[in-house]
Amino acid sequence: MKEGVVAKMKEFNAVLAGVGGQGILLAAEILGTAALKQGLNVRVSEIHGMAQRGGAVVSNVRIGEKVLAPTVLEGQADVLLGFEPLETLRSLRCASEKTVVIMSDERITPTELTAKKMKYPDLEEIAKKIRGFTKNLIVLPAAKLAKEAGNVLTGNVVLIGALAATRKLPIKDESIIDALRELVPAKHLDVNIRAFKLGYQHAKKGRTRT
Amino acid sequence: MPDLRLLLQDSPKKRALLLGNEAIARGSLEAGISVVTTYPGTPASEIGDAISEIAPEAGVYMEYSINEMVAVEVAAGAANCGVRALSAMKHVGLNVAADALMTLAYMGVKGGYVIVTADDPECYSSQNEQDNRFYALFSNLPCLEPSDSQEAKDMTVSAIEISEKLELPVLLRTTTRVSHTRGPVTYGKLTKPNLKGEFVRDAKRMVLVPANSRPMHTVLLQKVERAKEISETSPYNLVVRKGKNTKLGVVSSGAAFNYAIEALDTLSLDVSVLKLGMTNPLPEKMVGNFLKRHEKIIVLEELEPYLEMQVKAIAKDYAPNVRIYGKMGTVYFPRDGELSPRSVVTGLAEITGKKTPVNFGEIDRKYAAVQKDLPRRPPILCAGCPHRASFYVIKKATDGKAIYPNDIGCYALGFAPPLNVGDAFICMGSSVSMAQGISKVTGVDTVPVIGDSTFFHAAIPGLINAVYNNHKITLVVLDNLATAMTGHQPHPGTGVTGMGNSTETVLIENVAEGCGVKHVKVVDPFNVKEAIAVLKEALQHQGPSVLVFRSPCALMVVRERRRKGAEITVCKITDKCTDCMACIKLLGCPALILEDGKVGINEALCTACGLCASVCPYKAIECVKIG
Question: How close is the nearest chain A Cα to the Cα of B346, in Å?
Answer without folding.
Answer: 11
